């Protein structure tokens, strides 16, 4: 008979296996983790209300940027979020409510304000230098007193307080001259190497550009200054910037991309570029966009997916020795081109003396330009355009300027048309294909045929090396594309080119006796 104590004396491992088999199934239960001691940041609206209080508010500009608007300044001022000025304001406000105002706190608050504004605030106008008011324009001088000049038809007002128009200021902008009690535009002529007709057009350009805040309907002319060494073209560019939009940047090198041009345009009303020789077609297209207003899409920095829409709208000044960079007729149609003659050495003056005298006359010159702008605005609605061109708004401005000056009808408009057609001729002659087409039209009078036949005929007028260059179309399709660009410029020189479609394309060329517009 087996003993009980011998039955129970089994190895411990067997007992464990038996107990595990007989025990009921256990379901694991998740134990919640202890809450983190990290404090939860307040919602963006609460942060905004706490920091901004009553003396500042957030605003979403129509340009997509978010601004801090000062409520208690004599004239309304704005600071773009992320700039040093805005960071200084937020740091001070944080310290005022008991925080340290550290860079991290300022950055977090900036992002909270930005998110709140983009989600909840309607877009409103925030201007740089030139802003829209009822019936006219308001100009921020950006002096220490934040003075404004308000120009309406027939009236110029200097405003020291009470303006509701919000302006933001960039670090590199400089103050405009405080206008004198009396103005005199004629003082300006002695500082420029322009003849009487060019000077009148130049004053028209200055006042037109001053009366054009950056709204979608504004069209800017490109001011092009051509001349050899010693023609004072760089001086003219510097004076133009000083009168319209003074800046520490001044006259600069031409950018290498449309993105760089767009970035520069965000903080300027006018940009000046020096010593141009050639402009790539893509940059010529970008300048055309800047003239009439537009935008382009670029990739967000440091990302692969996000895109940014960058506005491109600004007045531009170009200067160079030759007009070779005006090779695109579309660019020439948007330009006011002055050919400057070299200054005789006997008439040269010290640049330092010239600058000193100019600064002394500047308040009267500035006032004179403001008064001229106000006088032109009086006649703008009733002005009659007699010589319409591509930049119709400038033609209308010149028509109003004729009435303001008491000049004969069409004298200013006809002068602009002449300058424009000369620029178009330059653009045609600077193109190998354009110059050859002009020669062919004058020789043949009238011609019709296919693009392939035209390419063969034109090839007879150029050298073998020219025909093998990149400037020459390599096939009929390429000829058709380049011809489409040249047609408007050729028309101003009296050459009518028509391309018709059918079973086979036909090109008709006719040379008229007088240039058609």
Mean of residue pLDDT values: 86
Main sheet: which strands, in order across?
4-1-2-3-9
**End-to-end span in angstroms?**
131 Å
Number of strands: 19
The structure class reads alpha/beta
Main sheet characteristics: 5 strands, mixed
Helical fraction equals 40-55%
Radius of gyration: 34 Å
Low-confidence stretches: 1-11, 20-41
- Helical element count? 17
Shape, principal axes of CA atoms? globular
Strand content: 15-25%
SSE layout and pairing:
Layout: H1 4-8, H2 12-22, H3 44-52, E1 56-61, E2 66-70, E3 77-80, H4 84-96, H5 103-120, E4 123-124, E5 130-133, E6 136-140, E7 148-152, E8 155-159, E9 167-168, H6 196-210, E10 222-226, H7 233-244, E11 251-252, H8 258-265, E12 270-273, H9 281-292, E13 294-299, E14 307-312, E15 315-320, H10 329-332, E16 335-339, H11 351-379, H12 392-405, H13 411-429, H14 432-444, E17 446-449, H15 451-459, H16 464-467, H17 476-492, E18 495-500, E19 506-511
Parallel strand pairs: 1-4, 3-9, 10-15, 10-16, 11-12, 12-15
Antiparallel strand pairs: 1-2, 2-3, 5-6, 6-7, 7-8, 13-14, 17-19, 18-19
Helix pairs in contact: 3-5, 4-5, 6-11, 6-12, 8-9, 11-12, 12-13, 13-17, 15-17
């Amino acid at each position: 008979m087996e003993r009980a104590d011998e039955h129970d004396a089994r190895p411990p491992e067997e007992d464990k296996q038996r107990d595990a088999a007989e025990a009921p199934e256990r379901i694991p239960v998740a134990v919640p983790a202890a809450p983190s001691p990290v404090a939860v940041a307040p919602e963006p609206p609460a942060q905004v209300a706490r920091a901004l209080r009553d003396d500042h508010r957030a605003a979403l500009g129509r340009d997509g940027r978010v601004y801090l608007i000062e409520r208690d300044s004599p004239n309304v001022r704005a600071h773009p979020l992320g700039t040093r000025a805005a960071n200084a304001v937020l740091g001070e406000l944080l310290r005022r409510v008991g925080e340290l105002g550290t860079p991290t706190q300022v950055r977090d608050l900036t992002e909270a304000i930005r998110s709140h504004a983009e989600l909840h605030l309607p877009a409103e106008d925030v201007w740089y230098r030139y802003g829209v008011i009822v019936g006219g324009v308001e100009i921020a001088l950006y002096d220490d007193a934040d003075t404004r000049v308000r120009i309406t038809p027939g009236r110029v007002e200097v405003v020291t307080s009470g303006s509701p128009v919000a302006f933001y200021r960039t670090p590199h902008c400089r103050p405009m001259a405080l206008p004198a009690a009396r103005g005199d535009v004629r003082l300006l002529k002695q500082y420029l190497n322009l003849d009487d007709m060019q000077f009148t057009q130049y004053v028209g350009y200055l006042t037109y550009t001053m009366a054009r805040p950056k709204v979608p309907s504004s069209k800017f002319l490109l001011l092009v200054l051509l001349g050899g060494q010693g023609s004072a073209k760089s001086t003219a560019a510097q004076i133009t910037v000083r009168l319209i939009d003074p800046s520490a940047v001044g006259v600069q090198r031409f950018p290498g991309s449309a993105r760089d041009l767009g970035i520069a345009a965000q903080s300027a009303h006018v940009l000046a570029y020096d010593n141009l020789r050639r402009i790539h077609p893509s940059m010529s297209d970008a300048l055309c966009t800047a003239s009439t207003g537009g935008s382009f899409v670029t990739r967000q920095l440091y990302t692969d997916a996000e895109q940014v829409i960058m506005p491109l709208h600004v007045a531009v000044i170009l200067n160079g020795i030759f007009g070779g960079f005006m090779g695109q007729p579309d660019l020439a149609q948007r330009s006011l081109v002055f050919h400057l003659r070299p200054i005789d050495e006997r008439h040269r003056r010290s640049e330092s003396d010239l600058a000193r005298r100019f600064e002394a006359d500047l308040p009267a010159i500035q006032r004179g330009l403001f008064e001229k702008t106000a006088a032109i605005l009086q006649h703008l609605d009733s002005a009659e355009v007699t010589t319409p061109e591509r930049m119709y708004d400038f033609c209308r401005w010149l028509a109003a300027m004729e009435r303001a000056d008491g000049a004969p009808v069409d004298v200013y408009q006809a002068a602009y048309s002449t300058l424009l057609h000369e620029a178009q001729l330059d653009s045609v002659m600077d193109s190998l294909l354009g110059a050859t087409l002009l020669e062919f039209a004058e020789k043949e009078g009238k011609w019709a045929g296919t693009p392939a036949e035209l390419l063969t005929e034109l090839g007879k007028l150029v050298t073998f090396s020219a025909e093998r260059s990149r400037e020459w179309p390599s096939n009929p399709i390429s000829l058709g594309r380049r011809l489409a660009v040249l047609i408007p410029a050729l028309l101003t020189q009296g050459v009518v080119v028509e391309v018709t479609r059918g079973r086979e394309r036909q090109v008709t060329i006719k040379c008229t006796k007088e240039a058609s517009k």
